[in-house]
Specification:
This protein has one domain: Calycin beta-barrel core domain (Lipocalin). Helices cover 10% and strands 55% of the residues. The protein contains two helices and ten strands, in the order βααβββββββββ. The chain has a ten-stranded antiparallel β-sheet with strand order 4-3-2-1-10-9-8-7-6-5. Strand 6 and strand 7 form a beta hairpin. The chain is globular and about 40 Å long. The model has no long low-confidence stretch (mean pLDDT 96). It holds the Pfam family Lipocalin. Belongs to the calycin superfamily. Fatty-acid binding protein (FABP) family. GO terms for molecular function: lipid binding. This is Retinol binding protein 2.
């Protein structure tokens, strides 16, 4: 049974966000601001349907998806690319593959020890974020 990720989650740690943003070719000025921000994730999960909001004082990003259904994603407000996105379950982890001009791009998200873990990957960079439930 996949994990229940519903709720509002506040960022506790954000390891190697700078490296991840560099791999996405995000400019220096944006990286300088973004790496100091605390993000809040709001997840509405209804079975395999997800509505997620990632909010910060600098930028917000909304993503709605259904597990197992590929869709076109425009990473507006992030690196402004168009990617083919597919999210699947691997046990109780959500695994996302984003096909586009960057290799090895995607993320994994899971609950462990009552915390929400998000692992962002692009090229050879991995960023690990941890969120606690509000």
């Amino acid at each position: 049974m996949p994990s229940d990720q519903n709720g509002t989650w506040e960022m506790e740690s954000n390891d190697n966000f700078e490296g991840y943003m560099k791999a996405l070719d995000i400019d220096f000025a944006t990286r300088k601001i973004a790496k100091h921000l605390t993000q809040t994730k709001i997840i509405e999960q209804n079975g395999d349907n997800f509505k997620t909001k990632t909010n910060s004082t600098f930028r917000n990003y909304d993503l709605d998806f259904t597990v197992g259904v590929e869709f076109d994603e425009h990473t507006k407000g992030l690196d402004n690319r168009h990617v083919k996105t597919l999210v699947t379950w691997d046990g109780d982890k959500l695994v996302c593959v984003q096909k586009g001009e960057k290799n090895n791009r995607g993320w994994k998200q899971w609950i462990e020890g009552g915390k929400l873990h998000l692992e962002l990957t692009c090229e050879d960079q991995v960023c690990h974020q941890v969120f606690i439930k509000k």
